Amino acid sequence: MSVQSVERALDVLEALAEHGGEAGLSEIAARTGLPYGTIHRLLQTLLARGYVRQESDRRYALGGGLVRLGGVAESMVAVWAQPYLARLVELSGETANLAVLEGDFIVYVAQVPSPRRLRMFAEVGRRVLPHSTAVGKVLLAWRPGGDAVTVFERTGMPRRTPNTITDIQSMLAELGQVRSRGYALDLGEEELGVHCLAVPVLDGDRVVAAMSVSGPAERIGALDRGELAEGMRGIARDFAAELSPAAR
Amino acid sequence: MSVQSVERALDVLEALAEHGGEAGLSEIAARTGLPYGTIHRLLQTLLARGYVRQESDRRYALGGGLVRLGGVAESMVAVWAQPYLARLVELSGETANLAVLEGDFIVYVAQVPSPRRLRMFAEVGRRVLPHSTAVGKVLLAWRPGGDAVTVFERTGMPRRTPNTITDIQSMLAELGQVRSRGYALDLGEEELGVHCLAVPVLDGDRVVAAMSVSGPAERIGALDRGELAEGMRGIARDFAAELSPAAR
DNA sequence: CTCCTCTTTTCCGTATGATGGAAACCAAGT
DNA sequence: ACTTGGTTTCCATCATACGGAAAAGAGGAG
After folding, report:
1. For chain A, what is the mean pLDDT?
2. A58 and A23 in one domain?
3. Which of B1, B42, B125 sits opposite A127 (nearest CB)?
């Protein structure tokens, strides 16, 4: 049914990614539980094709080939998302966005703008830090364990507006709340006067993306959050279903 | 030495990417020359792991897993590039950038700013169209055959300034020149008053990235282009050597 | 400088697991 | 209902990946 060596090669790449993109042979062995000889052979193959590179201290790291494939894949996701984002716009009347976590940044990969005259636009491709956005909170709230903490340690939590949450304790509390109520808010924390509401796109219990609607504070404030979030979760679920129909 | 099934799985992924990220089984077979049964089995494996997804019309497409790995890999490249960009700044006195082609967009993945008071800054992560930048020209000039044409067909070539090259014939001539002299210029084609000079980072004869320096027209104009380009090519070569020491 | 330890790389006989041709299946159009 | 083009499944065969263990390197400590 499934090709063992390919699965293992993927295990190796994932182990490498989880180690921050760089690891020694033995660290990979510890993570994957595979014998040294096997890992080494797989790495040689990936190396020859440019999907892994070897540093001077003979540690291994993810290589440029993945950047290429990842880019193509990302542009596809944007296309698939279009109809779902359109539904979000219809539901809320506001601009809808799809964002993913890439490294430590939030990247907006697709958008459908609101039909209103006054509307948000966050150009597709823009990168922002996670702490000041609703999509960022969603993407981190559903991550395993201490992921969020380490991300914030690396990026810091610079103040963007007076409303930005800049201390890690408050943020962790916020993330807990986000998780329990199923959606995240951004009340002018990235830009004053701009509010957002975001929900996760879940594949099983793994978050693969976040969808949000954003617009001027007054209009967003006038909506019934619970109801809106409920509708958005439905759309996010449909989208997730299209992304991985019966995978795993 | 090398694991056959992994190599073939990579062939399949690359074939998919070259087809624009989406293809039927038989199209992949045509490209790779592998038997149907084999490809199908490999695809099932990649499918189960989320690196490929299947559309409702049972065609295959690159999946979300690649976005994740690609993101991690990209953030690594930025780190490795730092010292080389610093050398570029030292050489030119201007801001140095590293950019890659991601889908149809140019993405700036790393930057070291100039020490001058008046300096360029193009925030890392920014996406721009290729036709109006020196890095864009470089990345397309070294691509095989008609790649450049198809990219421009998809993106169009919107006028950014009076200097922007907006017609495809002139652009193809420009790319030929870029290739023959070994570097590309942007003379205020993306933004008036801002000039850039870019060189390719080559792995064998494949472009993996482009490095550029950019600054105010007067200062860039005062430099000896040939000499600067020569120095930059050396740095780009060193960087390429670090990226793939003895690969392929 | 030499020894010792830790990590990476190479080797090779074995049996596991990938292979691919061909047949069944499915969808869509005629 | 039939034909066609593409996709999925099957299975006997043997090429291939496997992994234990030994060799080679790289550092660090004495």
Report:
1. 86
2. yes
3. B125
